[in-house]
Amino acid sequence: MDFVKSIFIAASGLKAQNGRMRIIAENIANADSTGRTPQEDPYRRKIPTFSTELDRKLKADVVELGPVEFDRSDFKTRYEPGHPAANESGYVRTPNVDTLIEMVDMREAQRSYEANLNLITATRRMLQKTIEILRA
Amino acid sequence: MSISDLPLFQALKSKMQWHQSRQGVLAENVANADTPGFRGKDLEDFSFEKALASRTVGLATTRTSTAHIVGSMMRESGGVARDDATGFEITPDGNTVVLEEQMMKVTANQMDYQTVASLYQKGLGLIRTALSRSG
Fold first, then answer.
1. CB contact under 8 A, B117 and A62
2. What is the pTM of this model?
């Protein structure tokens, strides 16, 4: 197991967190996307999944972004009779996205990304130290 | 006999290999820090006695023809990954990786590696001093 391998493993982590960030961005961007008619569903929150995959080339457990799942919780409702998507009783169904939760998820993705970056930096320093032996 | 065959350099080399393997295992842990059900891993602690003993245990084939392939039964020291579930906490989704702990381990691993690499460098310096004429 050499250092380049460690860097590749950390890179798989970076990639996974990057994908997670994209899904969080989608959720936040669509936090107000209601349907146009009462029958049409509003935006449903997406959840990224992670899975451990054995990379045969690296012979190591890397992380991969699995299939994106949907949040099955109920949609929120808001009383707004004039809205085109309002039902007979005047309620509009809004996406089941909680911006606060998305923000917390975003921070977590950021921290994990930084941790992977730190690991790459540490590995690079070790590699540099090895090369310094040549200079002695 | 080459310089890397000296016992000092052999010991330092196996220690450096161990740190290299450990860095890989820690990289796996950090990459999978958000994967449900992932159990953190770590290597068995390194011991010089074991590393030096395994050198003598192994068998290597002798080449009598250039067409032969060099075979070796030498065991790579410190290759055993153990379950590191005795960490600080286990999240509800069954993940045992704590990022702070891993970062600490990565830093310790890096520092130790740099120490060993410096020692290797110093060892080479010693030999160079011994070889130099202007004493």
1. no
2. 0.80
